[in-house]
Design a protein that fits this description.
Layout: H1 5-41, H2 46-79, H3 95-100, H4 104-137
Length: 141
């Protein structure tokens, strides 16, 4: 049985694209949460807090999906003799406190966590994009 590099390469590229889609979707949810958070800090009230929390929850779900997509991508990279640092470490949010004690300090802390998670996502997106660009430039198919 011969090794089919082309097939493995295409599987790795597909896995990388799925991971990028998940990561970018999570970032979009965090962007929306950040916008709602700004509104909340300016006195938006319960509705803005609930909308922000909903977007944070959506982002967390997408980040969990992205973690799995990144695990698959890492396995596929091994098949084409490439590797990459693809772990995501996204801290838990403080959303419960945000809804329970709705004040500027809690809103500011939540906004800081949203911004930190977004920066982490941007870093991982950049790493995946660099790996995929390297794969394309080193393509041996």
């Amino acid at each position: 049985m011969s090794y089919d590099y082309r097939k493995e390469y295409l599987e790795a590229m597909d896995a990388g694209n799925r991971a990028l889609d998940s990561l970018r979707s999570a970032r979009a949810c965090l962007d929306s949460a950040r916008n709602w958070g700004i509104f909340d800090m300016l006195g938006g009230g319960l509705l803005s807090g609930l909308m922000k929390r909903s977007k944070v929850n959506d982002a967390q779900d997408l980040m969990n999906r992205a973690k799995e997509d990144l695990r698959v991508f890492a396995r596929e990279l091994e098949d084409v003799q490439m590797s990459g640092q693809l772990e995501i470490e996204i801290n838990d949010f403080i959303g419960f406190a945000d809804l329970l004690w709705d004040n500027f300090l809690i809103d500011w802390m939540m906004q800081d966590r949203i911004n930190n998670a977004r920066r982490q996502l941007d870093e991982v997106i950049g790493r995946v994009e660099r790996i995929m660009n390297r794969m394309q430039s080193e393509r041996r198919v």
